[in-house]
Amino acid sequence: MRILILGADGYLGWPTVMHLTANGHEVMAVDNYLRRKLFNEVGVEPLFEVPRLDKRCAVWERISGCRVPFFIGDLAEWKFVEKIFREFKPDAIVHYAEQPAAPYSMLNRKAATLTLRNNLLVTANVIFAVREFCPDAHIVKLGTMGEYGTPDIDIEEGWLEVEHKGRRHNFLYPRQASSLYHTTKIMDTDLLWFYVRTWGLRVTDLMQGPVYGIFTDESEKDDRLLPFLNYDEIFGTVLNRFAVQAVAGYPLTVFGKGGQTRGYLNIKDTLNCVRLSLEVPADQGELRIFNQFTETFSVNELAEKVKAAGTSRGLKVEIQHVENPRIELEEHYYNPSHTGLIELGLKPHYLTEEVLVKMLEFAVKHKNNIAPDTIYREVRWA
Amino acid sequence: MRILILGADGYLGWPTVMHLTANGHEVMAVDNYLRRKLFNEVGVEPLFEVPRLDKRCAVWERISGCRVPFFIGDLAEWKFVEKIFREFKPDAIVHYAEQPAAPYSMLNRKAATLTLRNNLLVTANVIFAVREFCPDAHIVKLGTMGEYGTPDIDIEEGWLEVEHKGRRHNFLYPRQASSLYHTTKIMDTDLLWFYVRTWGLRVTDLMQGPVYGIFTDESEKDDRLLPFLNYDEIFGTVLNRFAVQAVAGYPLTVFGKGGQTRGYLNIKDTLNCVRLSLEVPADQGELRIFNQFTETFSVNELAEKVKAAGTSRGLKVEIQHVENPRIELEEHYYNPSHTGLIELGLKPHYLTEEVLVKMLEFAVKHKNNIAPDTIYREVRWA
Question: Which candidate among A200, B30, B165, B195 keeps its CA 20 to 30 Å from the CA of A37?
Fold first, then answer.
């Protein structure tokens, strides 16, 4: 299958490039290095240096024999999008090309505007390009479980049949997010759903929970193939960040009561979810929604797990409850459904102590790179 | 009250400027003449020439004694927004500054991108400016009944209490629109709702149905004070368009079966709804939603009403069902609630034969200006 990967330099984009080529697909990679620019803007660095896309592609070609053509450019600009789609008529598009950090989107007005503009215009351009150049192509879009928020009823997989005053209607599950970033993903879904109904596009929207880990079958072959590991509050997902904090001797910063519960998954499962979605595409005119996570944990549970794994390796790990800089429920009902991807064949990798210990050991190896003052930035929502 | 009116040159913006100043409020008017630029782009003209904002303000000052300062500029540009808000610290903002035509948003990629970019970035800038310069100010935003679409259950006023598997949650009413323009209004609501929760803004989102008429207490004082009357398919709302078609001897073009039902209102009621909302503002941290219409009609009913009024004035009016260029249900359940504005004190002006005859007589006066080839453009959704 010819697969265009947008946002191919990212935490998930690059491992996806390798995973799909390793599984026999033909891939073109596109990115504008937005994430790297934002690292510079906010003054953070990943735990270890990650080579640019040209170098990563070269290393991957030497190791795997898979050549991955790539383009650097801004997908919010139609001229660039047009060029990409004319050059590589894809059977499918994996769309990761968004500003991905909730705290970044809440940093200030400029960051908020960048997030809104980038995420919406790129999604719109992808839709318009598919319509114009490859109307049969399947768009696999990364959404987020954060679109649903934390309602007091069960979260279903994308849709909700509502009974009201004796009548029934099947709606897109009503969504309410807790950051601007997550809100742009709601807007993406609305945009995709409108054009699915109007133009008969085929779209899979993957409502993904926070991802952890950096090790995949492909990334483990050479350290230069590992994805970004951010441990700062802005770009680091919570479990990756806690692992580095544990190694740095920096207390695990639990926001507020720590009862915030989310659905998590190992990066290996992200790759499998995306590949499974590509290999069994949505129908023409279908918006297919999967809830993409394997286990739910509260922040307190994650902190306890990291503490236990760290202690078993001789680390002294403290947990510290800090004032919550975000606006979110700290104790809430959470019961999201997630059967679609399992039915497609997903075999989950669960969060075991072994997985955590491997993350901790890796962080120990790079301990000298940790800049503790970049860990907790206290980006305030209000 | 100091009221900033964004989109003050528009079909509703200008009558609102006059109505609020006539009612003792201090108003600043802002527009970028987007609508006029789009008239030129798509090659249409309103039924009669409408003076620019400078001239209209001058005429209105001579007649009413009310001076209205105005600024011409693009509210998608932060620098301009900042200047406006620094200059005129408003108590309230009426936000009409959006690309308002569903068919325009479906014309082509460029028009769609303009709609998405303009509507979202302006709404975001208004939010950021209120946060920075006047956090207590009340934002009155024009939404649309089109955000709800045509679900098979009753449409409530903004919110829906859902019972699911024995538990309950109160959601923003789930929305699904039938044009890109309407979809941007859904996104606006999501954006406003997020920042209402996060920053405690006070917002009223008026889910307005299609408006008809051009006569208001103020606009009738001088023909140069009348708002745009568009009769083309792109910018003309259906009843205004039908009135002109009847006079032009152009069959009333009903799309498909004509059972499409919407909630309509007289332009006089728009002004009163907006004023009432301003005078009894939403609370801090409240997103207040009103469904702003006074009567529901199907397109068939509207066509029959125009035909009857026209016939009574000696016009020969035909009704023609044409293939529907849009994607929408042509027969559907429609039962939207609309009690909030009535409770605030709205006294509706209903669609009587007298109202229609006055519209027809006005169109007869300007019959020579009608360009029949601009009436039906067949902008196709698919």
Answer: B195
